[in-house]
Amino acid sequence: MENKKHFPRYKAEDMTRGFNFRLGMEFKSLKDFKSALQEHSVLNGKEVKFVKNGSKRVRVVCKKGCGFLIMASKVGSSQTFRVKTLVGHNYGRTFGSKSASVEWIAQVLVDRFVNVAGMTVIQIIDEIKKSYSVGITYWKAGRAKKIAMDCLVGDGEGQYARLYDYVVELLRVKAGTFKIKVNQPQPTLPPRFGSFYMCLEGCKEGFLGSCRPFIGVDGCHLKTSYGVQLLVAVGRDPHDQYFPLAFAVVETECKDTRMWFLTQLLDDIGGIDFQRWIFILDQQKGLMSVFDDILNGVEHRLCLRHLYNNFKKKFGGELVIRDLMMGAAKATYHKEWEKKMGELKNLNVDAFNWLMDIPTKSWCKHAFSAYPRCDVLINNLSESFNSTILLARDKPIITMMEWIRSYLMSRFASLREKVDSYPGDVMPKSRKRLDREVEKSGNWLPVWAGGSQFEVTHGFTMDKFVVDLSNHTCTCYLWDLVGIPCRHVVAAIHYKSENPENYVHPYYKKDAYRTCYAPTISPINGQQLWPTSDSPQLLPPIYKTPPGRPTKLRRREADEYVTHGKLSKTNTAIRCSNCNAFGHNLRTCKKSQKSKNKRGASASTPGSAVGRGACAGRGASSSTSQAGRGSARDAEAGAASTSGVGGSATMREGGTRASSRLAGQILGSQASCN
Predict the structure, then answer these.
(1) What is the rounded CA–CA span in Å between residue 96 and residue 112?
(2) Domain SWIM-type, which positions (predicted)?
């Protein structure tokens, strides 16, 4: 029996810089042969070209013409390719190899690097140079990263097509509420993505279980090629940290999409009549109009930081005005608010009237409802969550939503385990706030009025407040508003030799925190196991990408805190030196400009300057000389303008003689001054 000849087989793991092709070497397919040839070409710095590139045979030679030749052909009816001819290279390596194509670089990124999304283009160039001794261009590195990211996380268009499959998988495990809104102007047109709403069941149960009925609403741009935006609703947990409640990816942020998002949210948490919800907004015009026109029964507050930014643009950022506005907003009782607003009125009536046009229940603590036990003036938790998901905001829609869902799933699990490590019954942040009130309670003297009522007086200013421990009220309104005893209440509690922690509202206790994160967020399978939906596949929204590179970070205000560098002058209030108004400078002022120097203005007349002569002094002579030169130029210009085509030379001569006489007069006056 004749022995069958064995040929060497190529293994991808054998490909190194010292790898050599062998005569008779077999490859599984034509694709494997080309891939090995390209890898070998890049590793050794040898450029090759395909002389014949067919489906059954391939012939490759050296691009430099050194005599290298490799030819492989198909073996019978199988897909195997075998090297039939082989002649090696006979020259050294080159640094720049065109064999390092964009597709090859992308495959290297996928196979060998974990954090491709976090790599910059410069880092990709350096890694390829260090690993393969090959220089690639900036454009190649950028394109390769995009292809690698599409391979790792999927392309945006394909993920919109599988959005219904994603929802079916989430509903399979009863993960929460999910709604898709499509745009289909005509039945004959394919449906396009409009909006996608997601509220996880664990988030809803935790919020309704022990969170305060206080919700921050904010939006952020997604850094994708389709221009969609993300709306978020964020609550506050018993530890005063953000508690993500619901999300919506919308085609564009407008009144209709905000209304749709808030309607879905209120339906999830029980509607308007179920409970009194308090919202805080960033003063977006469209979002405010939704509450004013449609959700009129829902109380809402305005973020003080955004309100102050608008205030500063109109009236400047002086510390006195700023402190008065902030003091009025933070005043917890009406008389203190009246005092601050009165001082502001005496300082700037326009600023006072501007603030009075805004309902006080939207920005002043003394007018806030005490029901949610929350005195928050800034929508910072919503912005903190938007900053947390910054890494996911440039990913396709399903990848981004999965990133958020996985993050919340692990966050719930870790915080659920962490709650037992906190000492005492009150959460640390609330305890810290209570400790500050305890420290300041030493200046307050309680007088028992009988039962649970006290009259608490300041030892120096003689200010008085009434405290009722049974009803949990204080006339300063801070205890009613927050639920943590104020300094007046602490003084009364110490009079009774009791623990102030016993008077902290249950919203801030460890039991509430444990209830908040007790629900679990269900895990789901990967895309390869998702069921197929009967709904038609969605097309991505229509969007025209603007020119330039999209920004990754939020543009900060000029007075925002930074850790290093310089404060930006962007959006700073500009004051005109002519009319003292804000918003423009002297150059663009429409009012008649004031004369800065009356002496200089009087010296600008040539006749008066020459007439004063020696009495004008050196300053006058200098001014007169400038005026004289100006008059000479005016004379020349006048001569040129009045002359015709034929008499221009004569007029120029006359103008020159006039300017010479005027210059002589000026020099004579200067000599007499000296």
Answers:
(1) 21
(2) 465-497
DSSP-assigned letter for residue 76: T
Query: CB of 193 within 8 A of CB of 541?
Result: yes
Name the amino acid, one letter, at 459: G
Residues composing the chain: 674
Predicted confidence band at 95 (pLDDT cuts at 50, 70, 90)? low
Q: Write the secondary structure of 234-256 as one string of H (helix), E (strand) and C (coil).
A: EEECCCCCEEEEEEEEECCCCHH
pLDDT given at position 623: 42
CA torsion sign for 295, 296, 298, 303 is positive
Q: Work out the average pLDDT over 416-438.
A: 94
For 111, the 3-state DSSP assignment is helix
Residue 252: what pLDDT?
Answer: 86
Q: Is the Cβ–Cβ distance between 26 and 7 less than 8 Å?
A: yes
The owner of tokens 């490859």 is 27
Q: Are 329 and 363 in contact (CB under 8 A)?
A: yes
Least confident of 75-84, 497-506, 565-574: 565-574
Cα gap 327→306, rounded to integer Å: 16
DSSP string, 583-637: S--STT--SPPPPS-HHHHHTT-HHHHHHHGGGGHHHHHHHHHHHHHHHHHHHHH
pLDDT of residue 400: 93
- Comparison of pLDDT for 557 and 480, the residue scoring more: 480
Q: What is the pLDDT of residues 310-339, one digit of tens each?
A: 899 888 878 899 999 999 999 999 999 999
**Of the candidates 237, 233, 235, which has an alpha carbon nearest to the alpha carbon of residue 262?**
233
Closest CA to 515 of 427, 435, 388: 427
**DSSP assigned state of 389:** G
The region that residue 275 occupies, defined by phi over 0 for left and psi between -120 and 50 for alpha, beta otherwise, is beta
Q: Which residue has the tokens 């952020």?
A: 220
C-alpha to C-alpha distance for 42 and 535, rounded to whole angstroms: 47
Please count the CA atoms within 13 angstroms of the CA of 509 that sit on its side-chain side: 12
How far from chain centre, in Å, is Cα 270? 31
3-state secondary structure at position 79 = coil
Reduce the DSSP state of residue 316 to 3 states and report it: coil
Quick one: pLDDT at residue 70?
87
Between CA 575 and CA 587 the distance in angstroms is 11
Q: Got the DSSP string for 80-96?
A: -EEEEEEE---S---S-
Distance between CA 516 and CA 506 in Å, rounded?
12
- Report helix, strand or coil for 454: strand
For position 92, what pLDDT does the model report? 61
Using alpha carbons, select from 515, 393, 495 the residue that is nearest to residue 446: 495
Averaged over 122-139, what is the pLDDT? 86
Phi, psi (rounded to 5 degrees) for 73: -140, 165
- Taking alpha carbons only, the member of 89, 121, 125, 256 closest to residue 549 is 121
| Pairwise CA distance, residues 577 & 589, whole Å | 9
Query: What's the farthest any 2 CA atoms get from each other in the chain?
Result: 132
Q: 């009722």: which residue's tokens?
A: 468
Q: Which residues pair with 230 in a beta bridge?
A: 220, 249
Alpha helices in 483-558 (DSSP H): 487-495, 510-516
In tens, the pLDDT along 227-241 reads: 899 999 999 999 999
The dihedral through the CA atoms of 213, 218, 222, 227 has a sign that is positive
Is the distance from CB of 106 to CB of 148 less than 8 angstroms?
yes
